[in-house]
Design goal:
This protein is an alpha/beta fold and about 700 residues long. The protein is built from 26 helices and 9 strands.
């Protein structure tokens, strides 16, 4: 369904989750690369996102071990000390991550009232190195293995916790001095590049002069402006990101990353990242991706031919594609996705699905502003976990998007992003294991595992069953069937291009890190990006590859394949729910089922095993290809039934019990340093807090309402 998100993701971490994509409108999704994420750098955040993966292959004895647990006689003491130590270094890094990405003023507290005195890229680098040093301490790994050797004396819970210690520490310990040096070098280079990129003067040279816009603003204008010269100027603005990054350190970053990975015995940096994150190597990954690439190549070519035949050859120009597919439709659908109502509709929808956040605290920073990181993501300064004394430590979550409420399409983008990043947040808030290491988005957490959760939930925004309930104008009227039908007709034939856009990022990074070092030059990188766009997408893409933020961050780089694997699992999971439950939207069994099957285990189980166990089938792309092959008429027939059933129900805000939405968490809506609304100040009334947010948005952006 209209699932892809182009957030502008990134943290790409899952939390990176951080770096997954702020999702774009459905029509644009068919042609743009998804960006939401964990850190998005998601995606997941998450992207970042994506996720931070520092995972060296081999361990080595460290002469500078900082482990202080070697004298402890009790496994309980060792586990408790390690958990507490990780929490501390994790927190310090994540505070800096959020503060620098959001351009917060020094001293601004985070969601739970805590925070450092200073936010800076220097502190970001220092705290990240401190966290990695903690995880790469060979003394901790040695002690873990000593305890594991005494398995007859361990409880099942202790055994499980020590095994995640072993897996995690084993990912981070580098036996090579060269690798460690190159790792540190690449991180410093990344910090410098990111700082320059965040202050880059980005925009479009229009007939009225230079108009400064974020990358999200440029993409949105390119999708909706009726002026082709303006759309082309926006595309050229996005293209300008590539020359900027290759001239400001990206070349050196690529070389340092590859040198580190090769010093550890990997083929290259991509091989290193995928092996650490997914548990299988680059060769195996691209065997899977090659099947999708070859299996959908003819569908892509047919879609391009159909678009050119129906809209003219100029429709294939990257600045025209999105607009000619649905620019006018986006405008006509816009009233049914009012931005100021997006948080309320997200909360109501998740509440009806039975989703709980287990007493988490959350900050949502949703509005675009100057110097803010140019991608949506979700991350967790405080992981959720069960302490050894039985107490529950809830998560502290932050997530962000780059909404401009005055821009056409911003409400749809915001809703999709909310569903995506809030999906990441629900997942990580519900991991119920005995260490925070089970609930962090870096290795050994699978990128695909993290992104599955968010992408499954944001997929609902394209369903007639969801739109008939929650896509409503400011008077409360639902979107018409005619508009939804037109959306199907204008986007479904081209959805294969969303898959191809997703594939282009991993294929580019694969080719990039396979370049001989002497060929890693600004000119070669730029030409390679163009070659991959043409090969994988059939022509230049509305979102130039070198404008994708995931590429720049260690946490989100070589991460995008996770979206492809996750999308396969999304279709398989949807197919399972529809076969067993008959429906997904507003089904109160969905949240508990996801919690039990996918969320609670955290990274204690493998992604492929979890999908197989829940759906009863090994992961396959068949359900995805089946949907792409469904005819427009077949899809309209099934969607019409779902739409009619949805609009026959009462307005979500008028049905019984509508005055209360209990997601079991504290929510703060913020705008940088400013706290807009806080459920702690509204008597835990989520709907009242949403009303305060709505008032703030309409007053700050009066033309949007």
């Amino acid at each position: 369904r209209d699932r892809h998100k182009f957030s502008l993701l990134s943290r790409m971490r899952v939390g990176v989750v951080r770096f997954l994509p702020l999702l774009l409108a459905a029509s644009a999704q068919a042609w743009s690369t998804p960006l939401l994420g964990l850190r998005g750098q998601s995606p997941s955040k998450l992207g970042r996102v994506g996720a931070a993966f520092l995972l060296p292959r081999a361990r080595a004895a460290s002469s500078t071990s900082t482990c202080t647990t070697m004298s402890l006689t009790s496994v309980k003491e060792f586990i408790d000390t390690t958990n507490e130590g990780y929490e501390k270094v994790h927190r310090s890094f994540e505070e800096q991550f959020w503060g620098t990405k959001m351009a917060l003023s020094n001293g601004t507290p985070l969601a739970d009232g805590k925070g450092p005195a200073t936010y800076s890229t220097d502190e970001l680098t220092r705290t990240k190195l401190e966290m990695e040093a903690f995880l790469a301490d060979s003394g901790k790994l040695e002690k873990t293995r000593e305890f594991l050797a005494q398995k007859d004396e361990l409880s099942d819970e202790q055994m499980k916790t020590l095994k995640i210690f072993e897996r995690t520490f084993g990912c981070y310990i580098m036996e090579s001095d060269v690798a460690r040096d190159k790792r540190e070098e690449s991180m410093k280079l990344e910090g410098s590049l990111e700082s320059k990129r965040n202050t880059m003067k980005l925009g479009a040279q229009t007939k009225d002069g230079f108009a400064e816009m974020s990358s999200v603003g440029l993409r949105n204008k390119m999708r909706t402006s009726p002026d082709e010269s303006e759309r082309k100027a926006c595309y050229e603005g996005l293209r300008a990101i590539g020359p900027f990054v290759v001239a400001n350190g990206f070349v050196e970053v690529v070389k340092a990353r590859n040198a580190m990975a090769k010093a550890l015995g990997y083929l290259d940096y991509y091989d290193y990242k995928v092996t650490q994150a997914e548990g299988f190597n680059k060769q195996r990954l691209f065997e899977i991706l090659d099947t999708l690439e070859m299996g959908t190549r003819d569908l892509m070519n047919n879609a391009r031919e159909q678009l050119a035949a129906s809209k003219g050859a100029s429709a294939l120009e990257p600045w025209n594609t999105g607009y000619l597919m649905a620019g006018d439709l986006t405008k006509r659908m816009d009233p049914y996705f009012p931005f100021e109502k997006s948080v309320e509709m997200w909360g109501r929808s998740f509440g009806k699905l039975g989703i709980s956040y287990k007493d988490a605290t959350m900050d949502l920073d949703l509005l675009d502003r100057k110097n803010k990181y140019s991608n949506g993501f979700c991350h967790w300064p405080q992981p959720a976990w069960k302490k050894s004394d039985g107490t529950w430590q809830p998560a502290t979550t932050h997530f962000t998007s780059l909404a401009d409420p005055s821009a056409v399409g911003s409400g749809h983008t915001a809703l999709t992003t909310l569903m995506h990043e809030a999906g990441h947040a629900a997942h990580f808030a519900n991991i119920q294991q005995s260490s925070p290491l089970f609930a962090q988005e870096r290795a050994p957490t699978s990128v695909a595992y993290a992104e599955l959760q968010s992408m499954f939930l944001d997929s609902l925004v394209g369903d007639a069953a969801w739109r008939g309930r929650y896509a409503r104008d400011r008077k409360g009227q639902p979107i018409s069937w005619d508009l939804h039908k037109e959306d199907i007709e204008s986007t479904h034939p081209y959805k294969v291009n969303a898959l191809r856009a997703m594939l282009s990022v991993p294929y580019f990074e694969k080719a990039l890190y396979e370049l001989p070092e002497e060929q890693v030059t600004p000119e070669k990188i730029a030409s390679l990006a163009d070659e991959i766009e043409i090969k994988i997408q059939g022509g230049f893409c509305p979102r130039p590859l070198l404008s994708v933020p995931h590429l720049l961050s260690d946490e989100a780089s070589c991460y995008y394949h996770g979206y492809v694997l996750a999308e396969m699992a999304v279709h398989q999971t949807r197919e399972h729910f529809l076969a067993t439950e008959g429906y997904i939207v507003d089904n109160p069994k969905v949240g508990p089922a996801l919690e039990s099957a996918y969320w609670q285990p955290g990274n204690s189980a493998a992604f492929l095993d979890l999908v197989h166990a829940f759906t009863g089938k090994p992961l396959t792309g068949d359900p995805w290809v089946k949907e792409l092959s469904t005819t427009v008429e077949q899809l309209k027939a099934s969607e019409k039934k779902d739409y009619d059933a949805a609009v026959a129900k009462a307005h979500p805000a008028q049905e019984e019990g509508a005055g209360t939405v209990d997601l079991q968490m504290r929510v703060r809506f913020v705008d940088g340093d400013k706290v807009i609304a806080d459920t702690a100040s509204t008597g835990d009334d989520f709907i009242k807090a949403c009303g305060i947010f709505e008032k703030y948005v309409t007053e700050r952006f009066p033309t949007a309402a």
